[in-house]
Amino acid sequence: IACNDSELVTLFWQIILEAINPNHTRNKFAIFYGDGNNGKGTFQRFLINLIGESNISALKPAQFAEKHNLETLVGKVCNIGDEAPNEYLKNPSDLMSITSGDTVLVNPKGRPAFEATFKLFNIFSGNYIPNGGNKTKGWYRRIMIVPFNADFNGEKEKPWIKNEFLANDEVLEYALYKAINQEPFTHFIEPKAVKGLLEEYQEDNDYLLSWVKHEYMEKGWHELDVVPVFILTRSLKHYAEDMGIPKPNVYGAGKETIRHLQQLTPNHYKLKRARVKVEDYDKLDPLEFERTKLSKTNHAVVKD
After folding, report:
1. Percent of the chain beyond pLDDT 70?
2. Is residue 81 within 8 Å of 95, Cβ to Cβ?
3. Helix 169-180 crosses helix 6-19 at what angle (to 10 degrees)?
Protein backbone atom coordinates (compact mmCIF):
# COMPACT_ATOMS: atom_id res chain seq x y z
CA ILE A 1 0.00 0.00 0.00
CA ALA A 2 3.01 2.33 0.34
CA CYS A 3 3.99 1.71 -3.30
CA ASN A 4 7.67 1.22 -2.38
CA ASP A 5 7.85 4.67 -0.76
CA SER A 6 10.06 4.22 2.32
CA GLU A 7 8.86 7.54 3.77
CA LEU A 8 5.25 6.35 3.63
CA VAL A 9 6.23 3.06 5.27
CA THR A 10 7.68 5.04 8.20
CA LEU A 11 4.56 7.19 8.34
CA PHE A 12 2.26 4.15 8.45
CA TRP A 13 4.14 2.81 11.50
CA GLN A 14 3.90 6.24 13.14
CA ILE A 15 0.15 6.30 12.42
CA ILE A 16 -0.23 2.91 14.08
CA LEU A 17 1.48 4.17 17.23
CA GLU A 18 -0.63 7.33 17.30
CA ALA A 19 -3.84 5.35 16.79
CA ILE A 20 -3.28 3.04 19.76
CA ASN A 21 -2.45 5.82 22.24
CA PRO A 22 -5.45 7.96 23.37
CA ASN A 23 -3.39 9.85 25.94
CA HIS A 24 -1.09 11.79 23.61
CA THR A 25 -1.59 13.84 20.46
CA ARG A 26 0.87 15.02 17.85
CA ASN A 27 -1.65 17.63 16.71
CA LYS A 28 -2.66 16.01 13.42
CA PHE A 29 -5.63 14.19 12.02
CA ALA A 30 -5.23 11.90 9.03
CA ILE A 31 -7.18 11.63 5.80
CA PHE A 32 -6.58 8.37 3.93
CA TYR A 33 -7.07 9.55 0.36
CA GLY A 34 -7.47 7.63 -2.88
CA ASP A 35 -9.86 5.84 -5.19
CA GLY A 36 -11.36 2.51 -4.23
CA ASN A 37 -9.58 -0.84 -3.98
CA ASN A 38 -6.24 0.61 -2.92
CA GLY A 39 -5.77 -0.74 0.59
CA LYS A 40 -7.45 2.00 2.67
CA GLY A 41 -10.14 -0.30 4.01
CA THR A 42 -7.68 -3.09 4.69
CA PHE A 43 -5.38 -0.82 6.70
CA GLN A 44 -8.34 0.56 8.64
CA ARG A 45 -9.55 -2.96 9.42
CA PHE A 46 -6.06 -3.78 10.67
CA LEU A 47 -6.14 -0.75 13.01
CA ILE A 48 -9.60 -1.73 14.27
CA ASN A 49 -8.38 -5.28 14.96
CA LEU A 50 -5.38 -3.90 16.80
CA ILE A 51 -7.36 -1.44 18.94
CA GLY A 52 -10.61 -3.38 19.36
CA GLU A 53 -13.95 -2.59 17.74
CA SER A 54 -15.51 -1.37 21.00
CA ASN A 55 -12.69 1.17 21.44
CA ILE A 56 -13.36 2.87 18.09
CA SER A 57 -15.76 5.72 17.36
CA ALA A 58 -16.82 6.50 13.80
CA LEU A 59 -17.47 10.23 13.43
CA LYS A 60 -16.93 11.78 10.00
CA PRO A 61 -15.46 15.31 9.71
CA ALA A 62 -18.75 17.22 9.35
CA GLN A 63 -20.28 15.33 12.30
CA PHE A 64 -17.89 17.00 14.77
CA ALA A 65 -19.91 20.20 14.38
CA GLU A 66 -23.25 18.57 15.19
CA LYS A 67 -24.63 19.29 18.63
CA HIS A 68 -24.66 15.91 20.40
CA ASN A 69 -22.06 13.87 18.51
CA LEU A 70 -18.95 14.48 20.62
CA GLU A 71 -20.36 12.24 23.34
CA THR A 72 -19.53 9.24 21.16
CA LEU A 73 -15.81 10.00 21.62
CA VAL A 74 -15.92 9.50 25.39
CA GLY A 75 -13.82 6.50 26.43
CA LYS A 76 -12.60 5.74 22.89
CA VAL A 77 -9.02 5.09 21.82
CA CYS A 78 -9.31 6.18 18.19
CA ASN A 79 -11.90 7.66 15.81
CA ILE A 80 -12.10 6.19 12.31
CA GLY A 81 -14.62 7.85 9.99
CA ASP A 82 -14.74 5.59 6.96
CA GLU A 83 -15.81 6.83 3.51
CA ALA A 84 -16.30 10.44 4.59
CA PRO A 85 -18.62 12.24 2.15
CA ASN A 86 -17.60 15.36 0.25
CA GLU A 87 -19.32 17.72 2.68
CA TYR A 88 -18.36 21.36 3.15
CA LEU A 89 -16.93 21.94 6.64
CA LYS A 90 -18.37 25.30 7.60
CA ASN A 91 -17.06 25.29 11.18
CA PRO A 92 -14.45 22.63 12.02
CA SER A 93 -13.45 24.30 15.31
CA ASP A 94 -14.24 21.30 17.54
CA LEU A 95 -12.31 18.96 15.24
CA MET A 96 -9.36 21.35 15.38
CA SER A 97 -9.55 21.59 19.19
CA ILE A 98 -9.70 17.82 19.63
CA THR A 99 -6.79 17.36 17.23
CA SER A 100 -4.62 19.64 19.34
CA GLY A 101 -5.83 18.22 22.67
CA ASP A 102 -7.75 21.33 23.73
CA THR A 103 -10.88 21.27 25.87
CA VAL A 104 -14.27 21.12 24.13
CA LEU A 105 -17.87 21.26 25.33
CA VAL A 106 -19.69 17.91 25.16
CA ASN A 107 -23.48 18.19 25.03
CA PRO A 108 -25.13 14.79 25.60
CA LYS A 109 -28.81 14.35 24.83
CA GLY A 110 -30.96 14.73 27.94
CA ARG A 111 -28.02 15.36 30.28
CA PRO A 112 -26.03 18.41 31.37
CA ALA A 113 -23.22 19.57 29.13
CA PHE A 114 -19.66 19.10 30.36
CA GLU A 115 -16.13 19.98 29.32
CA ALA A 116 -13.76 17.26 28.14
CA THR A 117 -10.28 16.91 26.70
CA PHE A 118 -9.79 14.25 24.04
CA LYS A 119 -6.42 13.21 22.67
CA LEU A 120 -7.54 10.33 20.50
CA PHE A 121 -6.29 10.16 16.91
CA ASN A 122 -8.83 10.99 14.21
CA ILE A 123 -8.64 9.12 10.91
CA PHE A 124 -10.92 9.76 7.94
CA SER A 125 -10.89 8.14 4.55
CA GLY A 126 -12.51 8.61 1.19
CA ASN A 127 -12.19 9.65 -2.41
CA TYR A 128 -12.61 13.30 -1.44
CA ILE A 129 -10.83 15.78 0.81
CA PRO A 130 -13.52 17.99 2.38
CA ASN A 131 -13.30 21.70 1.65
CA GLY A 132 -14.00 24.10 4.48
CA GLY A 133 -14.55 27.67 5.53
CA ASN A 134 -11.35 27.65 7.59
CA LYS A 135 -8.36 28.57 5.45
CA THR A 136 -5.92 29.45 8.22
CA LYS A 137 -2.45 28.07 8.80
CA GLY A 138 -3.83 26.37 11.91
CA TRP A 139 -6.24 24.30 9.81
CA TYR A 140 -3.65 23.24 7.26
CA ARG A 141 -1.13 22.51 10.02
CA ARG A 142 -3.49 19.92 11.51
CA ILE A 143 -4.28 18.05 8.28
CA MET A 144 -2.20 15.06 7.19
CA ILE A 145 -3.37 13.72 3.81
CA VAL A 146 -2.02 10.21 3.31
CA PRO A 147 -2.07 8.94 -0.29
CA PHE A 148 -3.22 5.41 -1.06
CA ASN A 149 -2.13 4.96 -4.66
CA ALA A 150 -1.96 1.18 -4.86
CA ASP A 151 -4.25 -0.35 -7.48
CA PHE A 152 -5.62 -3.78 -6.68
CA ASN A 153 -8.29 -3.64 -9.38
CA GLY A 154 -8.24 -6.68 -11.61
CA GLU A 155 -6.52 -8.81 -9.00
CA LYS A 156 -8.22 -11.86 -7.58
CA GLU A 157 -9.93 -11.13 -4.29
CA LYS A 158 -8.08 -12.41 -1.24
CA PRO A 159 -10.59 -12.00 1.61
CA TRP A 160 -8.42 -14.12 3.90
CA ILE A 161 -5.94 -11.21 4.19
CA LYS A 162 -8.48 -8.92 5.84
CA ASN A 163 -10.59 -11.59 7.56
CA GLU A 164 -7.89 -13.95 8.82
CA PHE A 165 -4.31 -12.72 8.42
CA LEU A 166 -4.90 -9.24 9.85
CA ALA A 167 -6.90 -10.72 12.73
CA ASN A 168 -4.18 -13.23 13.61
CA ASP A 169 -2.92 -12.73 17.17
CA GLU A 170 0.73 -13.23 16.21
CA VAL A 171 0.48 -10.64 13.43
CA LEU A 172 -1.19 -8.15 15.78
CA GLU A 173 1.34 -8.76 18.54
CA TYR A 174 4.23 -8.26 16.10
CA ALA A 175 2.73 -5.01 14.79
CA LEU A 176 2.14 -3.76 18.32
CA TYR A 177 5.73 -4.58 19.32
CA LYS A 178 7.19 -2.93 16.21
CA ALA A 179 5.04 0.19 16.57
CA ILE A 180 5.92 0.68 20.24
CA ASN A 181 9.63 0.06 19.67
CA GLN A 182 10.12 2.21 16.59
CA GLU A 183 12.42 5.23 16.74
CA PRO A 184 10.82 7.85 19.02
CA PHE A 185 9.36 10.88 17.23
CA THR A 186 7.85 14.17 18.31
CA HIS A 187 6.28 15.03 14.96
CA PHE A 188 5.05 12.88 12.13
CA ILE A 189 7.43 12.46 9.22
CA GLU A 190 6.37 14.54 6.18
CA PRO A 191 6.86 12.47 3.02
CA LYS A 192 7.08 14.32 -0.28
CA ALA A 193 3.84 12.66 -1.39
CA VAL A 194 2.03 14.01 1.68
CA LYS A 195 3.41 17.53 1.26
CA GLY A 196 2.36 17.53 -2.39
CA LEU A 197 -1.22 16.54 -1.56
CA LEU A 198 -1.47 19.25 1.11
CA GLU A 199 -0.31 21.90 -1.36
CA GLU A 200 -2.91 20.70 -3.88
CA TYR A 201 -5.60 20.73 -1.20
CA GLN A 202 -4.73 24.28 -0.13
CA GLU A 203 -5.31 25.50 -3.69
CA ASP A 204 -8.52 23.50 -4.07
CA ASN A 205 -9.79 24.76 -0.73
CA ASP A 206 -8.81 28.40 -1.36
CA TYR A 207 -9.62 29.73 -4.83
CA LEU A 208 -7.94 33.03 -3.96
CA LEU A 209 -4.64 31.28 -3.28
CA SER A 210 -4.99 29.32 -6.51
CA TRP A 211 -5.71 32.55 -8.40
CA VAL A 212 -2.68 34.30 -6.88
CA LYS A 213 -0.40 31.44 -7.96
CA HIS A 214 -1.82 30.71 -11.40
CA GLU A 215 -3.20 34.05 -12.56
CA TYR A 216 -1.76 36.99 -10.62
CA MET A 217 1.82 35.73 -10.46
CA GLU A 218 1.86 34.01 -13.86
CA LYS A 219 0.87 37.34 -15.43
CA GLY A 220 3.75 38.97 -13.58
CA TRP A 221 1.52 41.32 -11.60
CA HIS A 222 3.47 40.57 -8.42
CA GLU A 223 6.44 42.47 -9.92
CA LEU A 224 4.40 45.58 -10.78
CA ASP A 225 4.58 48.55 -8.46
CA VAL A 226 0.81 49.18 -8.53
CA VAL A 227 -2.13 46.83 -9.20
CA PRO A 228 -5.55 48.46 -8.71
CA VAL A 229 -7.98 46.51 -6.57
CA PHE A 230 -10.75 46.85 -9.17
CA ILE A 231 -8.52 45.04 -11.69
CA LEU A 232 -7.59 42.18 -9.37
CA THR A 233 -11.13 41.64 -8.04
CA ARG A 234 -12.54 41.39 -11.56
CA SER A 235 -9.83 38.90 -12.51
CA LEU A 236 -10.44 36.88 -9.32
CA LYS A 237 -14.20 36.81 -9.92
CA HIS A 238 -13.78 35.44 -13.44
CA TYR A 239 -11.21 32.87 -12.25
CA ALA A 240 -13.48 31.61 -9.46
CA GLU A 241 -16.48 31.39 -11.78
CA ASP A 242 -14.40 29.32 -14.21
CA MET A 243 -13.69 26.97 -11.28
CA GLY A 244 -17.45 26.50 -10.84
CA ILE A 245 -17.98 28.93 -7.95
CA PRO A 246 -21.11 30.85 -9.00
CA LYS A 247 -20.97 33.76 -6.56
CA PRO A 248 -17.40 34.15 -5.30
CA ASN A 249 -16.87 36.45 -2.35
CA VAL A 250 -14.27 39.00 -3.42
CA TYR A 251 -14.70 41.27 -0.39
CA GLY A 252 -11.29 41.97 1.13
CA ALA A 253 -9.52 40.45 -1.89
CA GLY A 254 -6.80 43.10 -1.83
CA LYS A 255 -5.83 42.32 1.75
CA GLU A 256 -5.93 38.55 1.17
CA THR A 257 -3.89 38.89 -2.02
CA ILE A 258 -1.19 40.70 -0.07
CA ARG A 259 -1.23 37.99 2.61
CA HIS A 260 -0.53 35.29 0.04
CA LEU A 261 2.02 37.36 -1.87
CA GLN A 262 4.01 37.95 1.32
CA GLN A 263 4.28 34.17 1.73
CA LEU A 264 4.98 33.33 -1.93
CA THR A 265 7.44 36.10 -2.85
CA PRO A 266 10.30 37.97 -1.15
CA ASN A 267 8.53 41.27 -1.86
CA HIS A 268 6.58 43.48 0.53
CA TYR A 269 3.19 44.95 -0.31
CA LYS A 270 0.58 47.25 1.19
CA LEU A 271 -2.84 48.64 0.33
CA LYS A 272 -2.90 52.35 -0.49
CA ARG A 273 -4.09 54.75 -3.13
CA ALA A 274 -1.69 54.96 -6.04
CA ARG A 275 -1.48 55.43 -9.81
CA VAL A 276 -0.37 52.76 -12.29
CA LYS A 277 2.71 53.47 -14.37
CA VAL A 278 1.89 54.05 -18.05
CA GLU A 279 4.30 51.28 -19.09
CA ASP A 280 2.25 48.76 -17.04
CA TYR A 281 -1.08 49.49 -18.73
CA ASP A 282 -0.75 46.68 -21.28
CA LYS A 283 -0.08 44.05 -18.63
CA LEU A 284 -3.10 45.04 -16.56
CA ASP A 285 -5.50 45.98 -19.36
CA PRO A 286 -4.48 44.27 -22.62
CA LEU A 287 -7.89 44.95 -24.25
CA GLU A 288 -7.68 48.65 -23.37
CA PHE A 289 -11.11 48.79 -21.73
CA GLU A 290 -9.98 50.56 -18.54
CA ARG A 291 -7.39 53.07 -19.70
CA THR A 292 -9.28 56.09 -18.39
CA LYS A 293 -9.73 54.55 -14.97
CA LEU A 294 -6.13 53.33 -14.86
CA SER A 295 -4.89 56.86 -15.45
CA LYS A 296 -6.43 57.94 -12.15
CA THR A 297 -5.36 57.27 -8.57
CA ASN A 298 -6.96 54.01 -7.33
CA HIS A 299 -7.10 51.85 -4.24
CA ALA A 300 -4.33 49.37 -5.06
CA VAL A 301 -1.88 46.68 -4.03
CA VAL A 302 1.43 48.53 -3.94
CA LYS A 303 4.84 46.87 -3.94
CA ASP A 304 7.33 48.59 -1.62
Report:
1. 99
2. no
3. 100
